[in-house]
Write a structure and sequence with these properties.
- This protein is α/β, with parallel strands linked by helices.
- It has two domains: 103 residues, no CATH class; 150 residues, HUPs (Rossmann fold, 3-Layer(aba) Sandwich), CATH 3.40.50.
- Helices cover 44% and strands 13% of the residues.
- The chain has eight helices and seven strands; from the N terminus they run ααβββαβαβαβαβαα.
- It has a five-stranded parallel beta sheet, with helices on both faces.
- Strand 4, helix 4 and strand 5 form a beta-alpha-beta unit.
- Helix 7 runs antiparallel to helix 8.
- The protein is globular, with a radius of gyration of 19 Å.
- The two termini are 28 Å apart.
- The relative contact order is 0.16.
Amino acid sequence: MRWLASTALVGDTALRAAGGWQVRVPMAALPSSQAIVVLSGMRVEPPGDAPLGEWSEAVDRFEAGMALFQAGKAPVLVCTGARIPWYPEARPEGEILAERAAALGVPHGQMLVTDKVTNTADEARAVARHLQEQRSTTPNAQIILVTSAFHMRRARVLFARAGFQVVPFPVDFHVSVGRTFTMLDLLPTASSLSKTELALREWYGFLFYQPAYSSATAYTLCSRPHPTPLPKARHTCLSMVISSARLWYHYRRSHHCVRRSSHA
């Protein structure tokens, strides 16, 4: 099982399936909407002096949001104020993204940053509240939702539950398509195992909002607009368990590499 989970055949397939088999959509095909919503999760805090941090591989989210705004797809660019609980001193990511957007020419009057949020469900509720209070949008406003492809299915469900008509614009694809299958796809690699782990995390998060989940509805749940969330405390607990598992996995992997190097 560990071998299979570490292969590209399983890792790539699992990650695409977890995201709902997303495909990149031509920007010209998107309808004009009331807001462009860019979900957080694209920065790292490096050691030293870096007030705005550095980009992670998910920077496509920000770049896509900027491109959509510059193309006139919506009059408002919304950034969510993500904040990780175990980094209490860190600035909310939305504030930093707004600074970067302003430096690239987005007027302050056309940007909106939510309150501090800690997960995707919080982001959906905060965006709905801020758009209604500060932009007087209708409860069923149409938005263009920008996030990573593997995260889009779960995010789309939660934003639909918050009352939005969601136009998905997935980016940050981790799996390339169109290449020929080779025996290398059956060899274990750390990168493929990481994709499998990421896919499992998305499935955990998605199923968390689907108490009536069953195998018969596994593929179609993404179209249900009003999943019932479990209590926030349980959501936080699940997130901490998943994060702890990731930390343990990376520790064991690095420890194994050190042991191999010492015996070389």
